[in-house]
Write a structure and sequence with these properties.
Beta Polymerase, domain 2, 19 helices, elongated, about 425 residues, alpha+beta, 7-stranded mixed beta sheet
């Protein structure tokens, strides 16, 4: 098959899937790969999510065919969804269906399967034209009733039908699709999305779409453009322009996005969300945004800390000609749990020059590593156990001595555990 760039692309398709498609055709049925697989193939990308829509045969017939290849499991009886597990391969089969909004939320749909429904009518329930394409198996013939390929070629994200409005989550899906595939929202889709509320969405669903926007590989500035065009600041006013410019915020998001694969998922989320919220006016705004969409403790702690402290580290670097006072680094390491995320934040901060940013990240790495605080907070030399071994009884004085000792450690007066214990012994002897 040809990609949107006109290149020949031969996607890897499991032989057993093609054999199943042959058997469906022999039973007078038709099988289509649908959804993300088709979109990704048009872009020349491999995809291992095989969703197959089956036409022209009954559920019992399909179950009989699939039983020759593995263990079919009717996971969605009402929706006609069958999951087939084989060695090293999972496939999902479904029948054409319609969805009609009958209640609130994402569960408020009446779903009905129709064996005689055409592909075009079944595709009306899809969100965007780029997701409403199908490839008939086994001959790999494209079925594209709503011109999804053309929209993909033009870089346009367009809704399929007015039924789009029945699921408001699609507004946020538009943001993450724009980001992942560098698409611009069609004017009529923007107009429709501006009329849709999001108050029927759970915090979990909102959070998942934000994560796909910010954490999946892509160009987040395209998602931000869609966010602004659809006026989603109606619901998320905390996403403010950086330095008065959404273009600068988009530039910041794109730069940070290129670094995220270097971090674990939680650290990447802290960095990405702190970047998205970098234009917020105060920490109260940050917490208001976060508590509406997540209850993950590390994010609720890490994002506000990075949002507040990374700009302070940048300001310190500007004042000190891109170097850092040792006491400053030791002290700030506690709130930041090290400087690896602050370095990535500063290395991409678009309100500073590129030369400054490069030097900032390099020097911060070198100087914080020399102090042992690049990847973790400064740890106190003096511990409660050491004080108890010196004969001090448990109580308030233990905490006071540790805090006083730690302050001296931050300032560089105490340089190791031996000096800290000697200091504590002297304090106890003098009292």
């Amino acid at each position: 098959m040809n990609t949107i760039e006109g290149k020949n692309f031969e996607p890897e398709l499991p032989l057993k899937l093609l054999q199943i498609a042959d058997d469906i055709r022999a039973a007078s049925g038709r099988a289509f790969l649908v959804g993300g697989w088709v979109r990704d193939a048009m872009l020349g990308r491999e995809c291992r999510d095989f969703d197959v829509e089956v036409y022209g045969i009954t559920q019992d017939t399909l179950l009989e065919i699939l039983s020759h290849f593995g263990h079919p499991n009717l996971v969605g009886k009402a929706f006609g969804v069958i999951h087939l597990t084989m060695r090293g391969l999972d496939l999902d089969f479904s029948f054409p269906r319609t969805e009609n909004k009958v209640g609130e939320g994402h569960r408020g749909f009446l779903v009905e399967t129709h064996l005689d429904l055409s592909f075009a009518k079944a595709a009306l329930r899809r969100d965007f034209t780029i997701n409403a394409m199908g490839v008939e198996l086994p001959q790999l013939e494209l079925c594209d009733p709503y011109h999804g390929r053309e929209d993909l070629e033009k870089g346009i994200l367009r809704h399929v039908s007015p039924a789009f409005a029945e699921d408001s989550l699609r507004v946020l899906r538009g943001v993450q699709f724009a980001s992942r595939f560098k698409l611009r929202m069609a004017p009529e889709t923007i107009e429709l999305c501006r009329t849709l509320p999001l108050d029927d969405l759970s915090s979990e669903r909102i959070f998942e779409e934000f994560k796909k926007w910010l954490l999946k590989p892509g160009t987040p500035s395209y998602g931000l453009d869609a966010f602004v065009a659809m006026d989603l600041k109606r619901f998320f006013p905390e996403v403010r322009p950086l330095g008065g410019s959404y273009a600068k915020l988009g530039e910041f998001l794109d730069g940070v996005s290129l670094t995220l694969s270097s971090f674990d998922e939680s650290s990447a989320a802290v960095l990405a969300f702190a970047t998205l919220l970098s234009g917020a006016e105060n920490k109260e705004e940050i917490m208001n945004f976060l508590t509406r969409i997540t209850n993950e403790i590390r994010l609720l702690r890490g994002i506000p800390a990075l949002w507040e402290k990374a700009p302070q580290v940048l300001a310190h670097a500007r004042t000190h000609k891109n170097h850092f006072d040792s006491a400053f680094l030791r002290r700030q390491s506690g709130a930041l749990s090290g400087f690896y995320l602050a370095a990535a934040f500063g290395a991409n901060y678009p309100l500073d020059s590129i030369d400054f940013r490069k030097q900032f990240a390099s020097n911060l790495c070198t100087e914080s590593k020399a102090l042992g605080v690049w990847e973790k907070a400064l740890e106190p030399f003096l511990t409660g156990r050491a004080l108890l071994e010196l004969g001090l009884q448990p109580g308030k004085q233990v905490g006071e001595l540790i805090r006083e000792s730690f302050e001296l450690q931050i300032e560089g007066t105490l340089k190791n555990e031996i000096e800290a214990i000697a200091w504590a012994r002297a304090k106890l002897t003098s009292t």
